[in-house]
Design a protein that fits this description.
The protein is of the alpha/beta class and 400 residues long. The two termini are 32 Å apart. 40% of the residues lie in helices and 14% in strands. It contains 13 helices and 13 strands.
Length: 400
């Protein structure tokens, strides 16, 4: 049985080209990049090249790229760093109800430190209204943090429009672009952001390395203190091999982005059309067009998503119910609840996130196996005789 991986929003396999680029820095080029001797200078060359590659993808200056240990660290550094550096200006932060927990839990922490946070709603597609941002900004607002695209349902936010609103009020704007960097254009001036978080392992790079874009002139307290690494913004000896891998992955993704996006979007629609044609009582979550190319989130009536995931796993197919960071939590997705999906229906969500190695044949295999799985699980469900979905349950529903 062929193993089929459809959980690329959780993590991606390391590309052979990335592994090859990293290899020298795991062996012969082992110097500390801060050392001034030849070994250190050779390691520093790898970091400098990676900074160029990431900056090219972001359309920013080299000195505006700060390498971190992961996307979560980048989010923490952006939000805490801006909050503490600008505390004399104000103590108000604006974010949304559908953010990754790296953002939500950071904001909750700051609330315990005396900051005030506004959590904006989203519509039934998972999209923020820029007018809600405008109305939420006050004279005490120091930061707006809104993700570029949601990791669970794929909905892409109107960042450029929001960025114009935020700029009019002179407030700093951060986006978590962990799910979009390498998949969608993320040129910072076009998005209108002052800070942007990204992570290598979402675009076929290594785990344990990320980056934070910080616009020149942005006041930002350091999260880690120690040496003078990353222009005093992120202390700690650099993960040279990981940074090199991030740079190479960014370079490859930038070159292949348009072709990959078209192919993945076609596979996504083939998967949805197959599911909708053969399974009753299903709901597609997220925006129908403004969405990540490879992300499809579906709720199946009367069944827990975990049961579907385990059943698909027995068939050799790996999917998820949402964020990998909350995979051990049995509560309904906070993203789906924010979109107005009833809790009982949200429990039946499954996220298919497609990647560069997925094929038409794999999609067709899932479409062929899924109806039998759903039928078997519904036969065991004590809720299967309840009323099916109503039109109010969401914008993309196939009823019984």
């Amino acid at each position: 049985m062929e193993a089929i991986y459809m959980d690329h929003n959780a993590t991606t396999p390391l590309r052979a080209e990335v592994r090859e680029a990293m290899s020298p820095y795991l062996d012969d080029v082992f110097g500390n990049a801060s050392s001034i001797h030849a070994f250190g200078r050779e390691a520093a060359k790898g970091i400098n090249r990676a900074r160029e590659q990431v900056a090219e993808a972001l359309g920013c200056r080299l000195e505006e790229v700060v390498f971190t240990g992961c996307g979560t660290e980048a989010d923490n550094q952006a939000i805490k760093g801006v909050a503490y550096a600008n505390r004399e200006r104000g103590n108000h932060i604006i974010t949304t109800r559908i953010e990754h927990h790296a953002v939500l839990h950071t904001c909750e922490y700051l609330e315990r430190q005396g900051f005030r946070v506004t959590y904006l709603p989203v519509d039934e597609y998972g999209v923020v209204d820029p007018d809600d941002v405008r109305r939420a900004i006050t004279d005490r607002t120091v930061l707006v943090s809104i993700m570029h695209a949601n990791n669970e349902v794929g909905a892409v936010q109107p960042l450029a429009e929001i960025g114009r609103v935020v700029k009019e009020r002179g407030v700093l704007f951060h986006t978590d672009a962990v799910q979009t960097f390498g998949k969608l254009p993320t040129r910072v001036d076009e998005l209108g952001v002052d800070l942007l978080s990204l992570s290598a392992h979402k675009l076929y790079g290594p785990k344990g390395v990320g980056a934070l874009y910080v616009r020149q002139g942005t006041r930002l307290d350091a999260l880690l203190h120690g040496g003078h690494h990353e222009r005093n913004r992120r202390a700690g000896t650099e993960n040279v091999a990981g940074i090199v891998g991030l740079g190479k992955a960014a370079e490859l993704a930038l070159a292949e982005m348009e072709d990959d996006a078209r192919r993945l979007a076609a596979l996504r629609e083939r998967l949805w059309e197959g599911i909708a044609a053969h399974v009753e009582g299903v709901r597609r979550n997220g925006h129908p067009t403004q969405t990540l190319p490879g992300t499809l989130n579906v709720c199946f009536e009367y069944i827990e998503g975990e049961s579907i995931i385990l059943s698909l796993d027995m068939k050799g197919v790996a999917v998820s119910s949402g964020s990998a960071c909350t995979s051990d939590v049995l509560e309904p997705s906070h993203v789906l609840l924010a979109m107005g999906v009833p809790p009982a229906i949200a429990q039946g969500s499954v996220r298919f996130s497609l990647g560069r190695d997925n094929t038409v044949e794999q999609v067709d295999y899932v479409v062929a196996e899924l109806p039998g799985i759903i039928e078997r699980l519904r036969a065991m469900s004590p809720f299967s005789e309840q009323e099916p979905f109503t039109a109010e349950a969401g914008p993309h529903v196939r009823k019984k």
